[in-house]
Design goal:
- By secondary structure, this protein is of the alpha/beta class.
- The protein is built from 19 helices and 10 strands.
- Strands 7-6-5-8-9-10 form a 6-stranded parallel sheet. Strands 2-3-1-4 form a 4-stranded antiparallel sheet, sandwiched between helices.
- The longest helix has 52 residues.
- The radius of gyration is 29 Å and the shape is elongated.
- The protein starts with a strand and ends with a helix.
- The C terminus is likely disordered.
Length: 439
C-alpha cells in the first residue's frame, strides 16, 4: 500500500486547483497503468490531492512503479506533467499510509485543524472508487477503518473545537469589519454542500438578508429549501455590485465573479431591474471558497472591494489547541497500530501455514508408521496429534506477536534456518524499504 500526497503543506493552491479538475477520473487510469496495481482511491479536496494505491506484491521497485503509474495518470487526467509535480508531493508506504489517512479523515491535516468536511470527502472518495470499480479488499478495509478512527476522534476529543471549518473561519475574519450582520446584504454563489453550510453559518452570525445565485440554474430550488431569495442570471451582476458580502463556493471551472461583473452591475438599468440601490457606502468583502477559484483576482482592484480567498484564510488559521490535538493524534496512532496489526497477521499467515504443513507432514508420516506396526485403538495416534497441537501453539502465538511488532521477517528467517521452510509470500516490510528507492 502506498500514498502519493500533494496537500496545502507541500503544494501551492494554484497547483492543487489544477489537480482538482481532472478531465477524466484519475483512479481508473492509475489502476490501468501497471500490472501490479490492484486498486486505487483518489481523495481530492480544496487543499489536497491524494492517491491511495494497493500494490499486488511488495517486490523490488513495486513502490516506484506505483508512483510512476500515479504520476502518469495525473498527467493524463489533468494535464499537469510529472516534472511540474516534483517537490510538491510526498510518498508514504507501509504502516505510514494508514496513520496518514486516519489523520486526514479526522481533520488533523486540514488547513484548519479539526474541520469536519474532510470526513465526508474521504467517504465519498471510497464510494466513487467503488462506482468506478477501482477499489480492492485492502483499500476497502483501509478507508472503512479511517471512518471509524474519525468517529472515535470526534466522539472522544475536543478536536472539533480546536479548529473551525473554512466557511466559519472566513466569516469570523469578516466579522471584524461588520458591526451588525442583520443589516448586511449577502449574496451566496453556489448551491452545494458548502453553500448549505454557509447559510447555516451566516444565520448563526445573525445575517437575515441572504440571496443565492447558481451558475448551473439551481438557485430557485435551493432558495425555496433554505428560505432565501433567488437571483437570476440577468440580475446577478447588479446583485454582486450592490452586496455587502459575496461568498462563492461553486465547482465551476471558470470564474463566476470578476471586476467586469462589478462594472456591469453598476449600470442603472440593471440596478433598477434588480431593485438594488445604485450607490454603495462602505467597503465590501468577497470571500472565495471555491476550488478552482470562483473569483478572478482582478476583483481586488475594484475600488472599495476586498478579496478573501483560500490562500488568505489558510494564513489566518488558528494555532492548534495542543491538548485536544495531541489526544486526537494518540487515538489516530492507536487506530493505525490496530490496522497494521491485522495486516501483519495476514502477512505472517503464509509462514504459519507453512510451518503447520511441515509439522503435520511429519506427523502423518509417523502416524502411518505407527499404524503399520499396529496401533491398538488408535491411542498412539491420538497422543501424537495432541502433542503436535501443544507444540505448535507457542510458535503460532509467537508468530503473531512478532508480526504485530514488525518482526515477521525474523520468524520467516527462523523457519528457513531451522526447518528449511521457504515462505513464498514476501514480508510487508519490503514496501517500506522500497519507499526510499522511490523517493
Amino acid at each position: 500500500m502506498l500514498c502519493v500526497s500533494a496537500s496545502h503543506k507541500t503544494a501551492s493552491f494554484e497547483l492543487l486547483e489544477r489537480l482538482s479538475v481532472p478531465r477524466t477520473p484519475v483512479a481508473p487510469l492509475i489502476a490501468a497503468n501497471a500490472e501490479l496495481v490492484q486498486g486505487a482511491v483518489v481523495v481530492a479536496t480544496c487543499n489536497r490531492f491524494e492517491a491511495y494505491v494497493d500494490m499486488d506484491e511488495p517486490v523490488t521497485a513495486a513502490v516506484a512503479l506505483g508512483v510512476d503509474a500515479t504520476l502518469s495518470a495525473i498527467e493524463a487526467a489533468t494535464g499537469v506533467p510529472a516534472a511540474e509535480l516534483e517537490g510538491s508531493y510526498t510518498v508514504l508506504g507501509g504502516d505510514d499510509v494508514a496513520e496518514h489517512l486516519f489523520s486526514v479523515a479526522s481533520g488533523l491535516e486540514s488547513v484548519v485543524v479539526g474541520e469536519g468536511e474532510i470526513a465526508g470527502q474521504v467517504r465519498r472518495a471510497l464510494t466513487e472508487s467503488r462506482q468506478l470499480g477501482t477499489t480492492s479488499a485492502e483499500l476497502e478495509r483501509l478507508f472503512q477503518r479511517a471512518s471509524e478512527a474519525q468517529r472515535g476522534v470526534k466522539n472522544s476529543t475536543a478536536i472539533g473545537r480546536a479548529g473551525r471549518s473554512l466557511v466559519r473561519l472566513g466569516l469570523e475574519l469578516a466579522d471584524s469589519r461588520i458591526a451588525d450582520w442583520s443589516t448586511q446584504r449577502v449574496l451566496l454563489v453556489g448551491t452545494g454542500a458548502y453553500a448549505a453550510a454557509t447559510v447555516a453559518a451566516l444565520r448563526d452570525q445573525g445575517a437575515e438578508d441572504i440571496s443565492v445565485h447558481s451558475p448551473s440554474g439551481r438557485a430557485a430550488k435551493f432558495a425555496a429549501k433554505h428560505g432565501l431569495r433567488a437571483v437570476s442570471a440577468e440580475t446577478f451582476p447588479s446583485a454582486v455590485a450592490h452586496a455587502d458580502l459575496v461568498i462563492t463556493c461553486t465547482t465551476s471551472e471558470h470564474h463566476v465573479v470578476s471586476a467586469a461583473t462589478f462594472a456591469a452591475g453598476r449600470t442603472g438599468a440593471e440596478a433598477t431591474a434588480s431593485g438594488c440601490p445604485v450607490d454603495h457606502a462602505g467597503r465590501r468583502l468577497v470571500i472565495d471558497l471555491g476550488l478552482p477559484r470562483n473569483v478572478d483576482p482582478d476583483v481586488a482592484t475594484v475600488p472599495g472591494v476586498d478579496l478573501l480567498d483560500l490562500e488568505t484564510i489558510r494564513l489566518h488559521a488558528p494555532l492548534e489547541e495542543l491538548q485536544a490535538t495531541d489526544a486526537a493524534r494518540d487515538l489516530v496512532r492507536d487506530a493505525a497500530r490496530r490496522f497494521a496489526s491485522v495486516g501483519e497477521r495476514k502477512n505472517i499467515t503464509p509462514a504459519v501455514v507453512a510451518l503447520r504443513a511441515h509439522v503435520f507432514g511429519v506427523l502423518d508420516a509417523e502416524v502411518a508408521r505407527v499404524r503399520a506396526r499396529g496401533d491398538e485403538g488408535g491411542q498412539t495416534e491420538q497422543a501424537l496429534r495432541h502433542l503436535v497441537g501443544v507444540l505448535l501453539h507457542t510458535p503460532t502465538t509467537r508468530a503473531h506477536e512478532l508480526a504485530e511488532t514488525g518482526r515477521a521477517d525474523e520468524y520467516i528467517d527462523a523457519l528457513s534456518a531451522l526447518f528449511g521452510i521457504e515462505v513464498t509470500d514476501p514480508a510487508a516490510s519490503a514496501v517500506r524499504r522500497d519507499i526510499a528507492d522511490a523517493g
